[in-house]
C-alpha cells in the first residue's frame, strides 16, 4: 500500500461482530417471548475440506448466539433420493427454521433440484427459485447472504443509495444477480457487467458504487475506479507471489486509494456471509411464527 492510499477501509469483520451481538440479543428476546429457540440445519455431502471448515464455522457461530444447530454429514455416494428424503424431513421438522445445503455438491447430484426441494420459507441461503422471484418482484424474500451483507455495509457507509450509479461486475445467481436486485430496490441506477460486456473499465468508471464478484484475482485496476466511489470486493482468491501464498480480492486493492471506501480481502465481505446466514435464520423463524421483535438486528 503506498503513502497516497486515502480510501477508508470498510471493516467487515467488525461490522459482522456487531451484527452477531445484535442477533444474540434478538434470539434472547425470541426465547423470552415464545419459549422457542430458532434452529438451523446444515447438510454436508462428501468430504470436501473447505466445505467441512465452513460447516464447522457455521455450527459454532449458530450455537454461540443461542440458536440450535443441526449438522447432517452425509457420505459422498449419497443418492439423490436419500438427500431429498432428508430435506423432506427437515422441511417438516418444527424445530428447524432454516435449512442450508453446503455447495458444491458431488457431481452426480442435481444441485438445482436439491435447492428447490428446500421449503422456500426455510431457504436461508436465498437460492430457491421462489425467493429469487420474490426478490425480483419486490416481495419479502430470504436474500442470499453475501449480497445482503454487501447491502448492509453500503447503507451503513452511505445512508440512502437512491439515485446513485451502481455497477455490479459478475452475474452469478449467488451474488451478481441478487446484488443488482437489491440495489435496484434501493433506487440505484444499476448496470451488470459480465464476460461479454464491451469496455468493462469504462463502465466501472461510471460507478458511484462498484461491487465486484467474478473470482479473478485483482482484475479491477485502480484506473477503473471513479474517484470517491465506494468499492465492495467480493472476490477471495489465493495467489502465489514472491514465493508466498496470499489471499487477494478481485480488485487491485493497493491501486484503489482514490476510492472513498473499500472492503479489504480478507476481512471485508467474507465475515458478513455467516453473520447474514444467522440473520436469515432469525428472519425465517419470525416469519414462520408471525412475530415481531423489539431488537431488530437487520433493518434493510
Give keywords:
39% helix; Rossmann fold; 300 residues
Can you tell me the CATH architecture of the largest domain?
3-Layer(aba) Sandwich
Number of domains: 2
Order of helices and strands: EHEHEHEHHHEHEHEEEEEH
Low-confidence stretches: none
CATH homologous superfamily annotation of the largest domain:
NAD(P)-binding Rossmann-like Domain
By oligomeric state, this entry counts as: single chain
Structural category: alpha/beta
The share of residues in extended strands comes to 15-25%
Task: Give the strand order of the largest sheet, numbering strands 1, 2, ... along the chain.
Answer: 1-11-8-7-5-6
Reported by name, the CATH topology of the largest domain is Rossmann fold
Overall geometry:
globular
How would you characterize the overall build of this protein?
NADP(+) binds at residues 170-172, 236. Keywords: Amino-acid biosynthesis, Histidine biosynthesis, Hydrolase, Methionine biosynthesis, Multifunctional enzyme, NADP, One-carbon metabolism, Oxidoreductase, Purine biosynthesis. This is Bifunctional protein FolD. Its EC number is 1.5.1.5, 3.5.4.9. With 300 residues, the chain is an alpha/beta fold. Helices cover 39% and strands 17% of the residues. It is built from 9 helices and 11 strands. The strands form 3 sheets. A 6-stranded parallel beta sheet has the order 1-11-8-7-5-6. A hairpin with a 2-residue loop joins strand 9 and strand 10. Helix 1 packs parallel to helix 9 and helix 6 (145-158) packs across helix 9 (270-289).
